[in-house]
TrEMBL record:
Pfam families associated with the record: Abhydrolase_6
Residues covered by the AB hydrolase-1 domain: 11-223
Name recorded for this polypeptide: Alpha/beta hydrolase
UniProt organism field: Niastella soli
This protein's record includes keyword Electron transport: no
Domain of life, per lineage: Bacteria
GO-annotated molecular function: hydrolase activity
Coiled-coil stretches noted in the UniProt entry, renumbered to this chain: none
Keywords per UniProt: Hydrolase
Amino acid sequence: MEKQTSPIKNVVLVHGAFADGSGYRGLYEVLTQKGYNVTVVQNPLSSLEADVKATTLALDKQDGPTILAGHSWGGAVITEAGNHPKVAALVYIAAFQPDNGESPLTWIQTLPPAPENGITPDENGILYFVKEKYHAGFCADLSEAEADFMYASQGAFYASAFATNITNAAWRHKPAFGIVATEDKAILPDIERNMYKRSNTKVTEIQGSHVVFMSQPAKVAAVIIEAAESVAAESLVASK
C-alpha cells in the first residue's frame, strides 16, 4: 500500500441516478491502495431528503475530516449533505451543483439534451434511462457487458427528487472541486462548466462519458486526492 501524505484520510462517495454504488469499485480500489478510507453510500433515490439522510449517516461514522464526492444527481445530494461538520471539501464528478432555490431540473433545462439522452418517466413518476439509449447516452466508453449490468442495476429514481430545490448549498462556504466529463451525453459538458464557473469551483476536464469515474478511475481519484491534500495544506498554513 502506498503511503498517504494527506492527513485527510476519509472519502465518502455518493452515486447518482440510473446507477448504484457498485460503479465505484474501480475508484474505491485506486483510493484504498493509496491509503484512503472509502465509504460508498447506497442512497435510495426516493427523495433528496432520503439521499441526504443516507449520506449524513455515512458521514457520522467517519473518524475525522472527510472529502465528500458525488456523481451526477449525487452532486445535488452532496450540496446539501456537505454542510456536515466532518466535510472538509466537496468533489463534483460530472455532477449537478445547484445553488439555493435551484434543483438539478433547473440546470438540465438550460440547454437542449443530447440525442443520446434517454431519461424517461414512467406512469409512477419514476425516471429511468431507457435501454436502447443507455450505452451510448450514459456510459459509451464502457463495454456493452458493463453497460448491460449497469442498466439492470439502476435504481428507481423519483422525478420529484430531481425537482427538489437546494436549501443550503455547502459549496458556498466549503472548497469545491469539479470534474467535467468532456464526452458526457447525460449532463452536457457545457452545463457542468457553467455550474462550476458560477461557483468558482476548481475544475478538471477529463475525457470520458458520464461515468468517467468508471472509465477513468485513476484520473478521478487524482482530483479527490488533490482536494484532500490542498485542503489539508491550507489548514496547516492557517494553524501557523
